[in-house]
Amino acid sequence: MKVGILINPKHGHTMRAYSELVEIIRRSHTRYRSATTTKQWPGVEQASKLLDWGADLIVILGGDGTLRVSAPVLASANVPVLIIPTGTANVLSRHLGIRSTRQALQLVQKYLDSPFAPRCEVPVNVADCFTEAGPRREHFLSLAGIGGDARAVSGRTRLPTGLGWGILGYAYGAGRALFAPLISAHLTTPQSSGPPRQSSGPPRQSPGGHAAPGAESDSQPNELPLETTTANYVWSVMASKTARPAGPIPVFDRARPTAAKFELLAVELSTTKPGDRLGEWALIGWSCVNRRPAAHAAMHYWQGTEASITLDDPAPVQLDGDLIGDCRRLDLRAGTTSLTIITPN
């Protein structure tokens, strides 16, 4: 067996985990080769070289971003991947049951002893981002978003050097993003299953106080039928394959990393006033904590394999926690190729 190791050295404990990993591999008398990512070369080229060398297993030491960048190449090669989560959030690995570097290292040892370990197939999803510079194709595994949730990532990256990393950065960015301006989004859903889960409530309104196009009353569920476009003033639109993308609080209770469909969410807030906005978020948070996120009228859920979001004005886009930039349109499609990931069970 040959083991290829892809390392993102951004976090200090990555190299400590790498040292332990190498010791495990050497004890098993297995050949290995390592490659390190850089800002200019975030992983595609390194993964390709490890595959050309003949790696039978790729071990990734990093977070969601490192996995996202290298996923299309690794999925095409049909080589199993083992994640050692040394990033900040490690959303995908947590949802696959890999909760610590120690557990992941034990999984490496188990796999080297017997390569018939449990595994799952995680679709590699496609995102076409339309920026001022032109269209740009990207891929993602767990979460895509445009608007407020991407502003949270943007706020984290703007922290001074030394403060921009870690949970502090995410908390700072998320706090600022709660009060982000609403965006006018035109949502096209070629394939959806419904009706989406939403509680009854009054029609949603634009910031000017008028009913937003596509708003629903309590007698009409927020249904998004086939080939329909609705226009709404929203805080963010997200497509998820993970239930808890922002920590322990469940937001997408039907989302699964291995699912064929996204669970999609449009957060259609009703106010721009800071005090009222804070109160609205508190009620949304309470609904999520009680595992009833769809109980709040601002949370519009549906499922599908495709979605297109077109904005009147550009807004930031994030994919698996990586800030892509400002886009006027975001087209999302569920993946048809899959990444084989070794799991604990």
Automatic annotation (TrEMBL):
- Signal peptide bounds: none
- GO MF, one example: kinase activity
Query: Which keywords are on file for this protein?
Result: Kinase, Transferase
Q: Give the residue ranges for region: Disordered.
A: 188-224
Pfam families xref list: DAGK_cat (PF00781)
Superkingdom, taxonomy of origin: Bacteria
Biased composition of type Low complexity is found at 190-209
Residues forming the DAGKc domain are 1-133
Q: Which PROSITE patterns match?
A: DAGK
Its recorded name reads Diacylglycerol kinase family enzyme
Q: Which organism is it from?
A: Brevibacterium aurantiacum
The lineage is: Bacteria, Bacillati, Actinomycetota, Actinomycetes, Micrococcales
